[in-house]
Amino acid sequence: MEEFEALLNESFEMDTPDEGSVVKGKVIAIEAGQAIIDVGYKMEGRVDLKEFANPGEAPEISVGDEVEVYLDRVENARGEASISRDKARREEAWDKLEKAYADDARVEGAIFGRVKGGFTVDLGGAVAFLPGSQVDVRPVRDAGPLMGMKQPFQILKMDRRRGNIVVSRRAILEESRAEQRAEVIGKLTEGDAVDGVVKNITEYGAFVDLGGVDGLLHVTDMAWRRVNHPNEILAIGETVKVQVIKINKETHRISLGMKQLQDDPWNAVEGKYPLNSVHTGRVTNITDYGAFVELEPGVEGLVHVSEMSWTKKNVHPGKIVSTSQEVEVMVLEIDTAKRRVSLGLKQTMRNPWEVFAETHPVGTEVEGEVKNITEFGLFIGLENDIDGMVHLSDLTWEGRGEDVIGDYRKGDMVKAIVTEVDVEKERISLSVKALDNSFSGAVEGVKRGSIITVEVTAIEDGGIEVEYEGAKSFIRRSDLSRDRAEQRPERFGVGDKVDVRVTNVDPKSRRLGLSIKAREIAEEKEAVEQYGSSDAGASLGDILGAALKGDDN
Question: Which residue intervals define the domain S1 motif in the entry (predicted)?
Fold first, then answer.
């Protein structure tokens, strides 16, 4: 009894392990896919064999092995200890991971599953989340080859209480790439010509692998000519020779160029394209302010919208030329320093106003369509897309132009006479009323100083209206007589015939300047010259009487 009591007291004194702790045990049997483990304290438990296997591997466990397990409960419904190898591994793993996280050290793990937004990683028992953006330095389309493979990871964040761990594979790759980049960059110098493989193509350029480090080949450095998209001249996987243009030692960024290994066509531009020379080029790009024309690969010039057409003003360049069209252009200006060539399209064609002036001198009759009607006249469409203007004052001889312009409509065909061509101002003046040349026929042979007979057609306070061969004129009151007392319009009657002297002939206004007073003065002067010298003492009345008598004889 004393011995039993001693054993009983001894068993009471033995500390039973706490539930929720990790204990050591020994595999005493393996059956039905489970390992039976003696954890001491007269307790046994069962663990599925799969808990002893790493992801993608067969379990490695045999009788006699000592293992650590997690004690969930001292006794379950079957009277056995409830134990777990996974939980033990997890607890063990968390201890190691917390230390690694504190030391900023890498940890080893294996990707074993896919979840929303990324993957699950086994870190020796602890499960971590690997975001999709942290798998590789570039987006990964197929993660199959990475599954189940042991590889290093960097812990970004962990919370043991919540059981959250976030890891990154990308950080490891970037670190190794940075070391590799530093080594490769250390061997490169600006100006070196090296071979590389095109790894990726974007709209703005291509990334070229120089043997462990990528360099950017910008689209503007691929060729001297305009390149709209890099895939015009490059393909992924292609080996190209490039020149190292710039190396940024701090960011490890490398700028590359292909055109720098070719001859710069701008070195010979001034010699090949002298000013005012004409060349054929291809339209490569059209903008609101003009069109770019390629003279040769790598040499483009701008045809400004103002240099595109003699006649089409304020028109979008796309309505004059089209992309890829072959055009003739003239070199207007070259700025080699800025690599700019100013070209002209209209200069390769004759100025239509010059051509019109040569083929339609003043006085030529033309016909055209009314293109526009304004408050000051008509615009008539002429050949070669140029317009001529008929001013209000040139519409009619009778009345005012404002009164007759309403008789015209857009699209009407109108005949007119060319009255002026100003090539410099690009202006053509036309006259509709000049078509009526009846005045010229009526006054043919009449010149200043002539004495003609007119018929009175109207009496007004200020003078009289008269007509000569259909051409009407007005004689002012002051010109009705040299005698002021006789300067009375009412002494004339409609239908009277009156001899007058022509003082002016104005074909432009179709007016004759007439004067009775001037005729009388001229007659008096003539009489004095003929008769005054032979009879110096005679009175003026005697002289005139003699002159009249001579006329009668």
Answer: 20-86, 104-170, 191-259, 276-346, 363-433, 449-517
